[in-house]
Structure formats: structure tokens, C-alpha cells
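Progress against Task 2.4 (sequence-to-structure conversion) is shown through the following example record, which the project officer requested during the mid-term review.
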Amino acid sequence: MTAYILSILGIVVAGIIIDIIVPSGTINKYIKSIYGIFVVAVIINPIIKFFNQHHDFNFTYKDYEVSEKLLNYINNSKIKGIESNIEKELEENGFKNVDIIIIYSSSEDQLVYNSCNVNLNYLSIDADKQHINRYEYIINVIAKHTNLTAEEIVFNE
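C-alpha cells generated for the chain above:
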């Protein structure tokens, strides 16, 4: 980059010297035309060098390794967000203090939900929701967020 800037400065200084030395007249036009060609050549030289090199813009997944630690962090963050959303939805619908823990595994780029543990030890239900089957309702909310079946959801009381 420094050489490029120095070459531009050199061509500018050469242009000033040529303008001072060369007398006005018909030959001045030809010399300035040749000088213009040199200026263009100096300016586009880095572009020509760039295109003469072999550039491989095809990136594959194998070119980059994803850190196992980073992948685990991302997966844990996704699961914590889903657990939080389920707990928030249950609380908004009158089921307070439900603790959700999703058990998962990851295969390649995909999360697989294995099961869900639901802790109901501190459950409090609003008075208007007492008649609802709490297990069925909680299963439906969890299934909506995770696609787990009723057999994969375990209740602890």
C-alpha cells in the first residue's frame, strides 16, 4: 500500500516537472497524453494485480470449524429461551412457579428434544383455573413449543 501511494506521489511530481520543462505547443499535447497514460497505468496497477491472482471464493463448511464450546453455548441459550417462554406462557395463563427443564441432544446442526422435566413442587394455580386439568394443559403448552409427546414429559411433585 505504501509503494502504491509513493508511486502516485512520484507520478504527480513528474507531471509537475514535465509541465515546467516542456514548452507550450503541439509537442506539449503529445507529452501530456503519454503522461496521462502513465497516470492511468499507475492507478489501475493494483486492480490488474488483483485479477491476475487466483482467488477462490467458494467456501465450504469444511473450511471453518465451529468451536464445540460455542456450539454448546448457543444450544444451551436456545433451550433456556424455550424453557423461559413455556414458563412465561404458563404464568400468564394462571399456572405460577412451574419449573421446566428440557433434556436435549444435538446432532450436527440440529437440536433434538429428548424429554422434559416439569417440577410442580411450588405450583400455584389461579382460582379461575382450578377446574382445568393441569397436566393436560401443561403438556399442550410444552408440546406446542417443543413437539414432545405426553410420554416424553415427566412431572415431579
